[in-house]
Write a structure and sequence with these properties.
The complex is a heterodimer of chains A (382) and B (653). Chain A has 382 residues and is mostly beta strands. Chain A is built from 2 helices and 30 strands. Chain B has a domain of 100 residues: Cytochrome c-like domain (Cytochrome Bc1 Complex, Chain D, domain 2). Classes of the chains: A mainly beta (382), B alpha+beta (653).
């Protein structure tokens, strides 16, 4: 497991944390009055572990489907949270192509789930699994890191390129380094954009594909440096891409070396690294986008940002939740919470305007957002 | 003296002949890649063009009724005439056809809206749904759907009016909004979705999938019933009809919450010698009672069989169900109260074994109504007083009074085509009378001449472990010899005395009927595997790359591919077969020989499973799992992209 070195910014957070928890001290008492936060804040976490019926401690991915059901991809199969709050597991014996589930996507048109696993792509439709593998279909490779559904096409990011499955024609189109601008075939992430698809390439930045035009465009780290970002705000943070996300005109790049954002309307890049920005850790497992807000799942918690304001969630040494809030031009604010993420190593997030779900290496967390009144309280000093 | 001129003349001729024969032999062996090949005629490989084949030539058309729909006022019956590209309207007071209208594209499935103002027509030849105004029978609108739509259902939902269309050729379901006419979703179905039924409350639509699938080569097959939410188009459930195939009829029983499927329970994994025992193919009805349990009950009786159950309808009061048995020209009447009573008292074991219990059907079957040839689609009047039976190969619709269960008239659409040998052959094809006790027909395994998706144990070594995949009859003209071992030079031979003894367990089909049957089969066109809108269009780039791979003589690196191992050598156009026996390394442990007849590839995209025993579920698996040492063409140099391209090309043939 890669760990991140401490940074001056983290030290600053730590200082504030210590001050805020010193006897008789209240960190927020020193904060100036500010505008309402433009991003949701988790007021309380509910956690679920194997003791609560989860089939594994490690949760790779989480999705709340259109019908309200919550789906989890674990190291021990697919799992759904049922109406009574219990968890039901699906494994190979049910038709799932492999126990290790790395990604889940819903086809909004049919309600079908597409499940990325370590040995093929599974479709769950009407309670029945169908396996698509590299041997029985046009799937490029059995190791499927990510999956997305957009406009009647299922996109599967695999270890040997991306496969596009047309649900109507049943035809597969494989894309790799031989027929696109990809520099290598390992596709780690996939995100539908506005009329385009973004492919996160393991050591190749991001490839933007327009299916209608058949064009490909690569976004690469302009400095080409593997570990450091010499030229901030000029392109992907590095070429190493662990995930991509898109919503509301904003593309986000997760990397093991920082976070990047591309505003597709303004055609501008911004990048963040742990040492110089509020980003809680450079080691980002995945990123989820809702509106213009990104939820970055890292090895040290979650950073939520719209690019200017940040809310970070970590697990304190005492097991309590720690929230860091950083507004532009203001000193960071740190609060403690009675509840915390199930684990600080967060694999993935799903969120909307009302709640967030966190897949961690040791259980599932449900983040209940503050009410508007609570949010208002956060904006003013007590 | 007289010998000299003779020798002078004949010697060169003999030498030329020997040389020519030697040259031909060398040519044949070199071009076929088969060094041991004996003599075959030139036309064995150098086939005629496809346009010379029987199925490519014009043929007579008939007024065969497909789907039928009764108007809400019970005064009018609409009849789809797919072979004529027409829809007919019949007056139910006089039982006469009042109007006909052209609807191009093989109109086959019909549905009316709630007030009978709009008639929706699924056109299976042109992959579209047409909307007709019932006032003038003019087409108001049309929309493309999946390949070969065979049925259509209308329902009202909270989200608006919906049309549900099973696309039998593309294995999916189109959900359409009516106003505007748009395709909202296209969801994957089972295999060959064929018929559709709306639940009484309009909240569930069930789709019967005609063709069976199996998870593994020796596993029990099943047909899927796909359940869909018509409002959202989302799939709600996929229910399995175990060991069932040919499930081509479905209806809702509104007062009971049941769904009834016509099914054939097939025992394909045991030697088909068991025909005498009466359970190789059992015809019946599957009852889904909404509790997740499906019970299959027989229509058959001991020594009396009612094969190829097709259309099924239930009376509005839920008291009766009617099932058309296309193979025995009968409509069976089921008393659903009696059936419910039996279901209520039967334990799980009895319900599980019901389908092969030949002493059961008397408990709920209350009548058998004789019909004309090949009854398929059924419809009831809104009050349930009249039953309409589409007698497909009679060109008529039978009208039955459901109180007396007696025929009260017939709507005559055509003359039955008795002067057409193809039509006569189709009658032979669909009738079960030529098999032992009339247990099954040709159509039981070859619906519409195609495959049923199954592999059968044909009396080989062992039990259930020496399977042979069913092969489509569509497009077989000119591909002789037949059978996987290539031993049958003609269709008459294939379906002749040996076939009768081994498979049908009865006397052979009389020669005139056998000739008619062969004529019908020769006129079966290949199965279309691409959308109608793409017919005649150029290949896509991927398909074109696949085509080049198919005809490749060199590997990507320029290394020559031996002629025997080039795709085009054995799968030689235009039929994509050289009609020779070849080994491609697929000999199974129970196979007595490893050489098999090279199958033609026209329509191959619809012929799964593949290889002689059906071990390959998809085209990809032929090369990714079952290719051995490049014996089935040189494929070891292919990338995954190239394999995908080849498969895309094969699907266009």
């Amino acid at each position: 497991m890669k760990t991140q070195p401490s940074s001056p910014f983290a030290a600053l957070f730590g200082l504030v944390f210590v001050l805020s928890h010193a006897p008789g001290m209240n960190a927020s008492a020193a904060l100036p009055e500010t505008a309402p936060l433009p991003i949701p804040v988790v007021a309380r976490f509910e956690n679920f572990t194997e003791k609560d019926g989860l089939p594994a401690h490690k949760i790779h991915c989480v999705l709340k489907a259109g019908d309200g059901r919550l789906w989890l991809g674990t190291t021990n199969g697919l799992c759904v949270r049922q109406d009574n709050g219990t968890f039901r597991r699906f494994g190979i014996e049910d038709g799932l192509s492999h126990l290790t589930v790395l990604g889940i996507a819903e086809d909004p048109a049919t309600g079908d789930l597409w499940i990325a696993t370590m040995q093929g792509l599974s479709r769950l439709s009407g309670g029945k699994f169908t396996a698509f593998t590299q041997t029985n279909s046009g799937l490029p490779n059995n190791v499927v890191y990510g999956v997305a559904v957009a406009e009647g096409t299922v996109w599967a990011a695999t270890a040997a390129g991306t496969g596009a499955y047309d649900i109507k024609t049943k035809a597969w189109k494989p894309y790799d380094q031989t027929n696109t601008v990809m520099n290598e075939p390992w596709c780690y992430g996939i995100a539908p954009g506005r009329g385009v698809i973004y492919l996160g390439i393991w050591a190749g930045g991001i490839v933007e594909h327009d299916p209608r035009l058949g064009t490909f465009k690569a976004y690469r780290d302009p400095d080409g440096e593997f570990h450091i970002a010499l030229t901030a705000d000029s392109g992907p943070i590095v070429d190493v891409t662990s995930g991509v996300a898109y919503d509301a005109g904003v593309l986000w790049q997760a990397s093991y070396f920082g976070l990047a954002r591309y505003d597709t309307q303004e055609a501008t890049w911004r990048t963040w690294v742990q040492d110089k920005t509020p980003l809680v850790s450079n080691f980002i497992n995945s990123v989820f986008a809702h509106g213009r807000i990104a939820w970055a799942s890292t090895d040290q918690g979650v950073s939520v940002t719209n690019g200017d304001t940040w809310v970070n969630y970590q697990v304190g040494k005492d097991g309590k939740g720690v929230v860091h809030i950083c507004r532009p031009g203001q000193p960071p604010e740190t609060r403690t919470m009675a509840t915390a993420l199930s684990d600080g190593f967060v694999m993935a997030v799903w969120a909307d305007d009302h709640e967030a779900w966190f897949a961690t290496s040791n259980g599932l967390s449900h983040g209940l957002f503050s009410s508007p009144a609570d949010q208002a309280a956060l904006t003013s000093n007590p | 003296m007289k010998l000299k001129p003779f020798i002078l003349v004949t010697t060169p001729l003999i030498l030329a002949g020997v040389g020519a024969a030697t040259g031909v032999s060398v040519h044949e062996r070199r071009m076929s890649g088969l060094p041991q090949l004996g003599y075959v005629s030139c036309i064995h490989c150098h086939q005629r063009g496809l346009d010379t084949l029987p199925w490519a030539k014009p043929r007579p058309h008939h007024d065969a009724p497909g789907g039928i729909a009764v108007s809400p006022d019970g005064k009018t019956l609409f009849i789809a005439l797919d072979d004529r590209d027409e829809v007919a309207e019949a007056d139910l007071a006089s039982f006469t056809v009042s109007r006909r209208t052209k609807v191009p594209g093989g109109p086959f499935g019909l549905a009316l809206d709630a007030v009978g103002k709009r008639l929706f027509v699924a056109c299976r030849n042109h992959d579209r749904v047409a909307v007709l105004d019932t006032l003038d029978l003019k087409e108001q609108a049309s929309i493309d759907v999946g390949i070969r739509p065979t049925d259509i259902a209308y329902c009202k939902t909270a989200e608006g009016e919906r049309l549900i269309v099973p696309n039998s050729g593309s294995d999916d379901i189109s959900v359409l909004s009516v106003s505007p006419l748009l395709e909202l979703t296209r969801s994957a179905a089972g295999r060959e979705p064929y018929a559709v039924a709306v639940s009484g409350d309009g909240r569930r639509v069930c789709i019967a999938n005609r063709m069976a699938v199996h998870d593994q080569i020796l596993s029990q097959p099943y047909s899927e019933v796909t359940v869909i939410d018509p409002a959202s188009g989302h799939i709600l459930a996929r229910e399995a009809l175990q060991s069932a195939h040919l499930a081509e009829g479905i209806t809702d029983v509104p007062t009971r919450g049941w769904t009834l499927n016509s099914v054939v329970r097939v025992s394909n994994l045991v030697p088909i010698t068991q025909v005498k025992d009466g359970w190789v193919m059992s015809s019946g009805v599957a009852i889904a009672r909404g509790n997740g349990e499906v019970t299959q009950v027989p229509l058959d009786e001991a020594n009396a069989y009612f094969p190829d159950p097709s259309g099924v309808v239930a009376s509005p009061d839920g008291k009766r169900a009617y099932v058309a048995s296309a193979g025995s020209d009968v409509v069976t009447v089921i008393d659903l109260d009696k059936l419910a009573a039996w279901l209520a008292q039967a334990d799980e074991a009895e319900r599980g074994g019901a389908m092969v219990n030949m002493a059961l059907s008397y408990r709920y079957v209350v009548a058998r109504i004789p019909t004309g040839c090949d009854p398929q689609h059924l419809a009831l009047s809104p009050d349930g007083s009249r039953l309409f039976v589409a007698e497909r190969l009679e060109d008529r619709v039978l009208v039955v009074d459901t109180a007396s269960l007696k025929p009260v008239g017939r709507i005559v659409l055509g003359d039955g085509g008795l002067d057409d040998p193809i039509r006569l052959g189709e009658r032979v094809f669909t009738r079960a009378r030529y098999t032992f006790q009339g247990q099954f027909s040709c159509r039981s395994c070859h619906p519409d001449g195609h495959v049923d998706g199954l592999s059968y144990d044909f009396d080989g070594a062992g039990v259930g472990d020496n399977l042979l995949a069913n092969r489509s009859l569509c497009g077989v003209a000119g591909t002789e010899p037949f059978k996987w071992n290539g031993k049958n030079p003609t269709l008459q031979y294939q379906d002749g005395p040996r076939f009768a003894r081994v498979l049908m367990r009865t006397d052979e089909i009389p020669q005139p009927q056998l000739d008619q049957l062969a004529t019908y089969i020769k006129h079966l066109p290949p199965t279309r595997t691409i959308p109608w809108s793409r017919v005649g269009q150029p290949l896509t780039p991927a398909e074109e790359r696949g085509r080049k791979l198919f005809f490749a003589t060199k590997r990507t690196d320029g290394t020559p591919i031996p002629r025997a191992l080039q795709c085009q050598t054995c799968h030689r156009p235009p039929l994509y077969t050289d009609r020779l026996l070849t080994s491609v390394g697929t000999k199974g442990s129970q196979d007595t020989s490893g050489v098999f007849d090279t199958p033609h590839l026209i329509g191959v995209g619809a012929m799964a499973p593949y290889l002689h025993d059906g071990r390959a579920k998809t085209l990809e698996e032929i090369w990714t799992i079952y290719q051995t040492d490049d014996k089935h063409g040189v494929s070891s140099y292919w990338s995954k992209l190239q394999l995908n391209d080849l498969v895309e090309y094969l699907k266009t043939l």
